[in-house]
Design brief:
Oligomer: single chain
Helix content: 10-25%
Number of domains: 1
Distance between the termini: 31 Å
CATH superfamily: Ribonuclease Z/Hydroxyacylglutathione hydrolase-like
CATH architecture: 4-Layer Sandwich
Shape: globular
Strand order of the largest sheet: 8-7-6-3-2-1-15
Strand content: 15-25%
CATH class: Alpha Beta
Largest sheet: 7 strands, mixed
CATH topology: Metallo-beta-lactamase, Chain A
């Protein structure tokens, strides 16, 4: 019998964590001396048949989602630095090897999800979808228009149906920047659905998303669950499995791990814990680990 990884103990006083451990000396400085890993591929994008989807994980929370008609980018980010956090694994493909992009989706304004330099490089007069209060961060980058959404808003574009879903996170770009929205997206096309969660801690809202939409493929974050602040804003692997079950999804694709070390947990730990949790809950066969830069057809 596989024993699940023990859940992290709750902190008595979250504010004390800053004094108990030193993120600078334990994480940031050692990251400077780690050789960047990963391979940048020259992908051959599949010619999709009706009813097929393709997912290409670029790294972190960045994905290319393809239908037979559309190329959609979610949270595109090729940055080697997030202010002081260094990228430790290369993007799976070059930004120059992307196909023509029809639509861009941004889940929230944090620097690891809304990277202005990457967005400027892919902008080609196509629309971009952002949460409420975020359009002013992208309006000058070369997109045709920025469409803002609130939770449970629906928007249709060239046969796609986009639903903006709730999350347990926050959307500030800078300190005291509290007016910006955040969430995830369910992308539906011809009977297929992909859910990109964005960033979120576990919360009961996954049950409602499952009840309303039951997205077939769920892209769920599994890393950055042991931050120096101790704040509960990212779910770990065990909660990702719980969310997956409550979403009533059929395939779990993990993300938000292995690219930047933004938290105390070791880089390899999220994947290992997800396998253990998946086996314990008898859903391991439903978990699909993608290799950055390699398109996978679903």
């Amino acid at each position: 019998m596989v024993t699940p990884h023990p859940k992290p103990k709750k902190e008595k006083k979250k504010g004390r964590r800053w004094n108990e451990r030193n993120f600078l000396t334990e994480v940031l400085i050692p990251s400077l001396f780690v050789k960047r890993s990963g391979v940048q591929h020259r992908p051959v994008f599949p010619k999709l048949q009706p009813g097929q989807l393709a997912l290409t994980w670029i790294g972190h929370a960045s994905f290319l989602i393809q239908t037979p008609r559309h190329n959609i980018l979610v949270d595109p980010n090729w940055a080697n630095w997030l202010i002081v956090v260094r990228r430790l694994k290369r993007a799976g493909l070059s930004i120059h090897d992307l196909p023509n992009i029809d639509l861009v989706l941004i889940t929230h304004a944090h620097f690891d999800h809304l990277n202005r330099r990457s967005l400027a490089a892919v902008a080609a007069r196509q629309p971009i979808v952002v949460p409420s209060g975020v359009s002013n961060l992208v309006h000058d980058l070369g997109f045709e228009r920025a469409h803002e959404m609130n939770w449970w808003d629906e928007w249709e574009h060239e046969g796609l149906k986009i639903t903006f879903t709730p999350a347990k996170h926050w959307g500030a770009r800078v300190l005291h920047d509290r007016h910006r929205g955040y969430g995830g997206y369910v992308i539906a096309y011809e009977g297929r659905q992909v859910y990109h969660c964005g960033d979120s801690a576990y919360f009961p809202g996954f049950k409602e998303i499952g009840r309303r939409l039951a997205p077939e493929i769920a892209l769920l974050p599994i890393g950055a669950y042991d931050p120096p602040s101790g704040r509960d804003h990212h779910m770990g692997p065990e909660h990702a499995v719980q969310a997956f079950q409550e979403l009533r999804s059929q395939v779990l694709v993990p993300m938000h791990f292995g690219t930047y070390r933004m938290s105390y947990e070791p880089m390899h730990e999220p994947e290992e814990r997800l396998k253990i949790a998946g086996a314990h809950h008898d859903v391991l066969q439903k978990i699909r680990f993608l290799v950055e830069g390699i398109p996978q057809v679903f």
